[in-house]
Amino acid sequence: MNDQMVQEGSQFKFDCPLTLGNPSNTSVIWKRENSSAQWTSKTFTILSVNVRDADVYTCIASSVLLPTIGESQTRIDAGSFCLVVVRK
C-alpha cells in the first residue's frame, strides 16, 4: 500500500485493498502501530484528521476455507500504509 497524505481537519477513508477470494466472508482488522486501538471494518475512516493521527496503519484480512473434504484452511494477508497529515 502507498503512503496516504491528508490535510488536517478533513475526512479520511481508506478501503482495505486485500481480497482473499473464496470464501467471501473475509474478516478485516485495522491496527495502528503506536496504539492498541483496532477497527473491524473493510473501510478505515477518520472523520476529522488531526496531526496526532499520523502513524502507520495495517489492514489484516483473514478468511477460513471450509472444504467438503479435509481440514479447514485459514489464510491471512496484511498490508500497511503511513498516514501523513499536512497542517492547514
Helix vs. strand class? mainly beta
Number of domains: 1
Instruction: Write down the CATH class.
Output: Mainly Beta
How many beta-strand segments? 7
Low-confidence stretches: none
Strands across the major sheet, in which order? 1-7-6-3-4
What is the string of SSEs from the N terminus onward?
Answer: EEEEEEE
Helical run tally:
0
Largest sheet: 5 strands, mixed
Using the alpha-carbon principal axes, give the shape.
elongated
Rg, rounded, reads: 15 Å
Describe this structure in words.
- Pfam families: Ig_3.
- This is Ig-like domain-containing protein.
- Residues 1-77 form the Ig-like domain.
- The model has no long low-confidence stretch (mean pLDDT 90).
- The chain is built from no helices and 7 strands.
- By secondary structure, the chain is an all-beta fold.
- It has strands spanning 4-7, 12-15, 27-32, 38-39, 43-46, 55-65, 73-86.
- A 5-stranded mixed β-sheet has the order 1-7-6-3-4, with no helix packed on it.
- The chain has a single domain (4-86), classed as Immunoglobulins (Immunoglobulin-like, Sandwich).
- Helix content is 0%, strand content 51%.
- Strand 3 (27-32) and strand 4 form a beta hairpin.
Output the keywords.
two-stranded antiparallel ribbon; Ig-like_dom_sf; Immunoglobulin-like; 88 residues; Ig-like domain-containing protein; Ig_sub; five-stranded mixed β-sheet; mainly beta; Ig-like_dom; single chain; 51% strand
